[in-house]
Amino acid sequence: MPVWYDDAGLHHGDSVEKPPVKRVGKLALVRTGAVYRDPATNNIWFHPWGGSPRVVGHGTPSGPGGDPQGDVAAWFDGKTLVVYDTVGGKVLSRSREVAGVRSDGWSVEHLSHGNGFMHVSAQQVIWASTDDALGRRDLVARTSALPWQARPPAAAHRSKGSMPASLLDVSPVSAVWFTHGNIDGSTLDTYFLVGPGTYSRPITGLESPGILSADGSWLLTAELADGTHGVAITDVRTGEAWRPFTKATYAFFSWSYGDVAVMRVNPRVQESNRWSLVACYVVRRVCKTLGDGSHVLLPNP
């Protein structure tokens, strides 16, 4: 089911709900609702689908992250990481971290709506920190690591002279690393998809960044094999890619629930005023236009 926010309100499939704030900033998803920041106050709101929204946190310029398959949301109050149970209505963890998540103004190409949270679950929180490192809070062991480095399996390392692999995203069952270029000056963009059983599958010709669906089954990236753009959605288990648009297409993209990707799409890279909002259903391999995509906030990846 696609989720997004625009001037009409918070869209959840075919329904539209009006948030109690003037404007929503940094939208994240949990299983039963949305979590978002009020830019006017830096408060965090939990908005249950069909229920009454309520303030659950304060003091966060960066906004929340969430678990679309569960009930846990996370945000930084200064450098304090707050982990919250949206159904139970209680704080699960508060921990003072060395560095918080990236600031509200942070964005990367194709993910201008993001804020640096990479993974949120009842077991761990992983984020891109304000000092360009990765941070991880183990909620089971109650320990933190920053900088934290996850290493790909040995089979994913490339030949001598290659650039180091960087972790781009992680899910409960899979992870994705990315390398760009070689020390000798040649260029080769490579993703290493790592799934259940710790197998790896290299895929070339894709552009960073890449984001995994909540269940870790699909990798959503821009495609740049021939110098243009496009979108590729790759099956992590098989390596098979679905390319729903032409290579001239430019997209800002994210995941909603399940296998549904939501995107702001421009059919031609150079025509900046032709944005539309599209939902792509990966299993059925069909995309539907939802409306104008000029002023749309997508969920955090």
Explain how this protein is built.
The strands form seven sheets. This protein has a four-stranded antiparallel β-sheet with strand order 4-5-6-7, with no helix packed on it. A four-stranded antiparallel β-sheet has the order 8-9-10-11, with no helix packed on it. Strands 12-13-14-15 form a four-stranded antiparallel β-sheet, with no helix packed on it. It has 301 residues and is mainly beta. Residues 183-188 have low confidence and may be disordered. It has strands at 3-6, 9-12, 15-17, 25-30, 33-38, 43-48, 54-57, 65-66, 72-77, 80-85, 90-96, 117-120, 124-128, 134-138, 143-145, 166-170, 175-180, 189-195, 199-204, 206-212, 218-223, 231-235, 241-242, 250-255, 260-266, 276-281, 286-292. A hairpin with a 2-residue loop joins strand 2 and strand 3.
Number of strands: 27
Proportion of beta-strand residues: over 45%
Structural class, from secondary structure content? Answer: mainly beta
Question: What is the radius of gyration?
Answer: 19 Å
Poorly predicted regions are: 183-188
End-to-end C-alpha gap: 15 Å
Major beta sheet summary? 4 strands, antiparallel
Numbering strands along the chain, what is their spatial order in the largest sheet? Answer: 4-5-6-7
Give the overall pLDDT as a whole number: 85
List the total number of helices: 0
* Secondary-structure element string: EEEEEEEEEEEEEEEEEEEEEEEEEEE
Proportion of helical residues:
under 10%
The coarse silhouette is globular
